[in-house]
């Protein structure tokens, strides 16, 4: 049997990927509203990232895009594509499930009292276009993690408590297969912008997962960070094994939080990036913290899989080069091009959901190999629209093209049963 390890499941970027400016508080989404998108290029960028990570020796999985436009959701609102108001039509079309870090919160088996890996699908209720993701996501989680000997998949936390999944959750441990300390980050206020993760939801998830309260931390995200555009914690902080890598202004009560982290997990190495070296604004435009912080096999140390935007931001790149030249656990920098997703505020870490499990216990249809990525890339090349301008969303031909494209992918991955 293969061993318990971290598996990164990436959301395949769907054929309806577009820039509709739907996420208040997400600077990239607002800035790029109304631009033409390039769904084929977007999906190929996502696939190239997965391939890159496989080549590093990491274990990779994926999720299918959801059925968009969501006609059932429009019908429940008493409308349809042709007559819906533009923002509702765009919400029905959104390919936002690509950001798998918001699909669910995961507590690996060693942390849970019953010894199973727990997954709670995120309700994403704050943003209308994301609020209708969870039923389609839950269907995939129930399929991928159907082995009840190892997994427990939970439905969403009820409204009105907003839950945005793993983007607001960090886990510290000596190695992935050992018991960890889980940090749930919530927001209280973000000034002009919504705080999307509510503490009540975080607490509910921790209770449902059967975590030991001595190994759980609830941390408030700083209001300043949310107001500056950090709509999820993973825009300003990331953790992997014993390392917590965070911006100085990520948390509301940093000193108290660090003291609690050190008490509950003495092995921690905290790397705080000072605002004097990298401003919050640079951290947010470069998405430095929305990196995948991963442990490379064969004692390769840790690597940051970063968006190319981080390299293009001088203060950020200078900081990172100094960091890896020193003796921190982070030794390698790997920029990847996910610009189509970045233009909607989704970096490398947004595109993936981390699950710690034995890959042999996961439905193999969701596990990636480079051959399977070739097959998926062929479907994308053949069926994904080249470009979508926002005024095309009323177009019947586009709707048909998007639906056919997803169905072809489901067929190629033997997942046609997801076509509800
Ligand atoms: O929820 N963007 C997403 C980006 C999610 C990033 N995820 C993490 N940080 N983990 C969001 O704001 C933009 C869609 C649009 O405007 O068309 C959007 O939904």
* Poorly predicted regions: none
The percentage of residues in β strands lies in: 15-25%
**Biggest sheet record:** 3 strands, mixed
Q: How much helix is in the residues?
A: 25-40%
Query: What shape does the CA trace take?
Result: globular
Number of domains: 1
Ions and ligands: N~2~-(3-carboxypropanoyl)-L-arginine
Number of strands: 15
Total helices: the number is 15
Task: Please report the first level of CATH classification, the CATH class.
Answer: Alpha Beta
Would you tell me the overall average pLDDT? 97
CATH topology value:
L-arginine/glycine Amidinotransferase, Chain A
CATH-wise, what's the superfamily? Answer: Succinylarginine dihydrolase
Spatial arrangement of strands, main beta sheet: 2-1-15
Terminus-to-terminus distance: 33 Å
Structural class: alpha/beta
Descriptors:
binds N~2~-(3-carboxypropanoyl)-L-arginine; 420 residues; three-stranded mixed sheet; single chain; L-arginine/glycine Amidinotransferase, Chain A; 15 strands; alpha/beta
Gist of the model:
The protein is an alpha/beta fold and 420 residues long. It has 15 helices and 15 strands.
Write up what this structure looks like.
- It contains 15 helices and 15 strands.
- The chain has a single domain (5-419), classed as 5-stranded Propeller (L-arginine/glycine Amidinotransferase, Chain A).
- The strands form five sheets. The chain has a three-stranded mixed β-sheet, covered by helices on one side.
- With 420 residues, the protein is α/β, with parallel strands linked by helices.
- N~2~-(3-carboxypropanoyl)-L-arginine is lined by residues 19-23, 26, 29, 94, 96, 99, 101-102, 127, 130, 167, 231-232, 234-235, 344-346, 350.
